[in-house]
Design a protein that fits this description.
The protein has about 425 residues and is an alpha+beta fold. The protein has helices at about 10-15, 20-25, 25-30, 30-35, 55-60, 80-90, 105-110, 120-125, 125-140, 150-155, 155-165, 170-185, 190-220, 225-235, 240-275, 275-285, 290-300, 330-335, 370-385, 420-425; strands spanning about 40-45, 50, 65-70, 145, 305-310, 315, 320, 325-330, 390, 410-415. It has 20 helices and ten strands. A hairpin with a 4-residue loop joins strand 1 and strand 2. Helix 6 (about 80-90) packs parallel to helix 13 and helix 9 runs parallel beside helix 19. The longest helix is centred in the middle third of the chain and has 32 residues, at about 240-275. It is globular, with a radius of gyration of 21 Å. Protoporphyrin IX containing FE binds near residues 256, 263 and 302.
Length: about 425
């Protein structure tokens, strides 16, 4: 095999397949060879250039003119004609939002929509998040076992996302199905027979998003981020377009929900696999914010992201022609020894943990990062206070195969309810 520039492809580059279990289980380990020996390589199976080192990835994030984010939400596995017909039958027209919008359109829109993410604005959501976290823990605290994902970590961030966006709380189960389908549709490799089913779910998700948006337009004074966008549209119709609003109504749910649900599931798995770190945060909750940061570094929920080279360019000494697609593996950057001393070590006191690139970097860096951090901190505060004696049950962790969104489908935990602190010392 050869790269598009005619260079030979190494054996490991030829074998690289992000839909394989090896990548799903541990992306930074799966590309360790690349990070150490061939930091930028062409993957013939994927048709992408894969970038694995911290410095190169940060430089790519920094230059969003040379490295356009326009393909961030493009289907990584093109769908067949049948699935495309199904999508068309629903009027599916997912378009640019923010994350995949180029300049000069992106920055004015980002600025116009930023206010609901300020620390003061986010503070208003804290009681809602804490209330939800407590209510869900109440439901299983006396059981002695739980699947943290099924019984809490999937639904609570979804509900928070809906509140944040301003969506009524109904239709949760349907939404849950839809958002999974959207992930597979965008970042996964569904088989031809699955594609049609996924396309139906995505089409329905799209239509549902349109209906919710219409409802919001009737009552645009609500506190949600979408209502904020509807109000901004009156002032700046060319910046906050109809296409943006409908696309964000759907993409926003996924952006705020799955990323955070997966991040917390990854964090709980990691912390419980490191009993000393878990004991430390149980004893001293002031360690939680940095522990969250270290979890996002060591085992983040967005493993990789995409950019399109708009001109001939050199990355890490490798010439990449204009029009090339890049898979930038932030989870690998986060384990780069040049940036993080003893990078594979999980250290909740690590001083530069917040240099992690899980939220991206630069002009497109995640707008919701502080909402996500607040949620994760609150979940950990509640778990450590109420279930400090929780441990992982025997299990093999499974992941939904895709390049980017990563978190275990289940996290089974167990504990002795007779030892619950609120029973022992009510
Ligand atoms: C963008 C990750 C939670 C809203 C992004 C990007 C990543 C990301 C990787 C692209 C960054 C880039 O291109 O440089 C995450 C992770 C989360 C999370 C790991 C949770 C742990 C949230 C939440 C929201 C949100 C809760 C709330 C609505 C957004 C938006 C953008 C974005 C609006 C687009 C920003 C732009 O392009 O200007 N996020 N995200 N995210 N995220 Fe998040």
């Amino acid at each position: 095999a050869a790269t598009p520039t005619g260079c030979p492809v190494s054996r490991r580059a030829a074998e690289f397949d992000p839909f394989e279990d090896g990548y799903q289980q541990d992306p930074p380990e799966y590309v360790r060879w690349a990070r150490e020996q061939e930091p930028v390589f062409y993957s013939p199976k994927l048709g992408y250039w894969v970038v694995t080192r911290y410095e190169d990835i940060k430089a790519i994030f920094r230059d969003n003119l040379t490295f356009s984010p326009s393909i961030a939400l493009e289907k990584i596995t093109p769908t067949g004609p049948e699935a495309n017909e199904v999508l068309a039958s629903y009027g599916y027209a997912m378009n640019r939002t923010l994350v995949n919008e180029d300049e000069p359109a992106h920055m004015p829109r980002r600025r116009a929509l930023m206010d609901p993410f300020t620390p003061e604005a986010l503070m208003h959501h804290e009681p809602m998040v804490r209330h939800l976290a407590r209510e869900y823990v109440d439901r299983f605290i006396d059981d002695g076992k739980a699947d943290l994902v099924d019984q809490m970590l999937w639904e609570v961030p979804l509900t928070v996302a809906l509140h944040f966006l301003g969506v009524p709380e109904e239709d949760m189960d349907t939404l849950r199905k839809y958002s999974i389908a959207h992930t597979v549709n965008t970042w996964g490799r569904p088989k031809p027979e699955e594609q049609v089913e996924v396309a139906h779910a995505v089409g329905k998700f799209w239509q549902f998003a349109g209906k919710v948006l219409d409802k919001m337009r009737q009552d645009p004074d609500g506190p949600g981020w979408m209502q904020y966008g509807i109000r901004k549209q009156k002032e700046l119709p060319d910046v906050v377009t109809d296409s943006y609003l409908h696309s964000m109504m759907m993409a926003g749910i996924v952006a705020a929900h799955e990323t955070t649900a997966n991040a917390t599931a990854n964090a709980m798995k990691l912390l419980l696999q490191h009993p000393q770190a878990w004991r430390d945060i149980c004893e001293d909750p002031s360690l939680i914010p940095n522990a969250v940061e270290e979890c996002l570094r060591h085992n983040g929920s967005v493993a990789a992201w995409r950019r399109l080279a708009t001109r001939d360019v050199t990355v890490g000494g490798i010439d990449i022609p204009a029009g090339s697609k890049l898979l930038i593996v932030m989870s690998s950057a986060n384990h780069d020894e040049h940036q993080f001393a003893d990078a594979d070590l999980f250290d909740i006191r690590r001083e530069n943990a917040s240099d992690q690139l899980t939220f991206g970097y630069g002009s497109h860096q995640c707008m919701g990062k502080n909402l996500a951090r607040m949620e994760m901190q609150i979940f950990l505060e509640e778990f450590t206070r109420r279930l400090p004696h929780m441990r992982l049950a025997e299990q093999r962790f499974t992941y939904v195969p895709n390049t980017s969104f990563r978190g275990p489908e289940h996290v089974f935990v167990e504990w002795d309810p007779a030892l619950n602190p609120e029973r022992v010392d009510p």
